[in-house]
């Protein structure tokens, strides 16, 4: 199968759209429904936090959206292109150019310098990295003077900033972040969150970029434009212009969201 042309012009389509997304692990009575017909749309130039209790499907949402695993049912559209049924190698090539991924554990290559780690996605695509661009990205995340350092020579916050620069090197339209501050102290976390916010407010590429971040932290969620709350693999609620207190209050009543979600599923 060859790469298809988007049916909707990218400038008119949402950056990321998930329609009826389902992901089931196992069979029969032992089956686990990580996602159960989830619908979410992420518009261009927005920052969305995804929250919910453990097992609500947050990370599965990201891995399916990124094409790291195939959903059991439903559709994933990136820039208006339905990539759901593409072969693994096609999704990999598409992901390198259209999606950036930031992991909680950084996932840097320990034997590569910061500069080499940032340039890695470009090299993996068979192209020669633009060194000026790589250095500009390191400068943007505050690490211009650490380009030649190995990950072991960097703090956790610095490693995550390298990972963020790496996610941006191909100028993706969507950056997916899975608990990007989970392994950081509060000061380092704040720096990473400010950078994620800046991606939306001042896009690296000059065109609107979108951030989708899974987090358990109400303070982190307050950096976003909106919050989507997941329960049992479904969207159980959304909040615009979140504050840390408002998010914490909603999380304190997740039992109500769980009950409402399960009642809706049974009806």
Distance between the termini: 40 Å
Count the domains: 1
- Average pLDDT confidence is 88
Report the portion of residues in β strands.
Answer: 15-25%
- Total number of helices: 9
Report the biggest beta sheet as strand number plus sense, adding barrel if it closes. Answer: 6 strands, mixed
What is the CATH homologous superfamily assignment? P-loop containing nucleotide triphosphate hydrolases
CATH class: Alpha Beta
Overall outline: globular
Architecture overview:
This protein has a single domain (16-266), classed as Rossmann fold (3-Layer(aba) Sandwich), CATH 3.40.50. It has helices at residues 58-65, 88-98, 114-124, 131-140, 156-168, 186-201, 218-221, 244-252, 254-266; strands at residues 16-25, 32-42, 47-51, 73-78, 81-82, 99-102, 174-178, 210-214, 226-231, 234-240. A hairpin with a 2-residue loop joins strand 9 and strand 10. Helix content is 36%, strand content 23%. The protein is globular and about 55 Å long. Strands 6-7-8-3-9-10 form a 6-stranded mixed β-sheet, sandwiched between helices. The protein has 9 helices and 10 strands. Mean pLDDT is 88; it is low at 1-10.
């Amino acid at each position: 199968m060859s790469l298809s042309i988007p049916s909707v012009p990218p400038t008119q389509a949402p950056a990321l759209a998930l329609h009826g997304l389902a992901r089931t692990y196992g069979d029969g009575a032992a089956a686990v429904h990580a996602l159960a017909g989830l619908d979410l749309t992420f518009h261009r130039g927005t920052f969305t936090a995804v929250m919910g209790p453990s097992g609500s499907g947050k990370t599965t949402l990201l891995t399916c959206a990124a094409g790291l695993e195939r959903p059991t049912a439903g559709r994933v559209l990136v820039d208006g292109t339905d990539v759901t049924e593409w072969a693994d190698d096609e999704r990999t090539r598409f992901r390198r150019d259209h999606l950036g991924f930031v992991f909680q554990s950084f996932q840097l290559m320990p034997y590569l310098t910061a500069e080499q780690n940032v340039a890695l996605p470009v090299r993996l695509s068979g192209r020669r990295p633009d060194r000026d661009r790589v250095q500009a990205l390191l400068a943007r995340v505050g690490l211009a003077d650490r380009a030649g350092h190995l990950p072991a020579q960097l703090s956790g916050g610095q490693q995550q900033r390298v990972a963020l620069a790496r996610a941006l090197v191909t100028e993706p339209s969507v950056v997916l972040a899975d608990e990007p501050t989970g392994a950081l102290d509060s000061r380092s976390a704040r720096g990473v969150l400010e950078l994620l916010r800046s991606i939306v407010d001042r896009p690296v590429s000059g065109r609107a970029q979108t951030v989708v971040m899974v987090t358990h932290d109400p303070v982190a969620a307050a950096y976003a434009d909106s919050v989507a709350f997941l329960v049992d693999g479904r969207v159980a609620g959304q909040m615009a212009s979140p504050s840390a207190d408002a998010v914490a209050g909603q999380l304190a009543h997740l039992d109500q969201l769980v009950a409402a979600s399960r009642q809706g599923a049974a009806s």
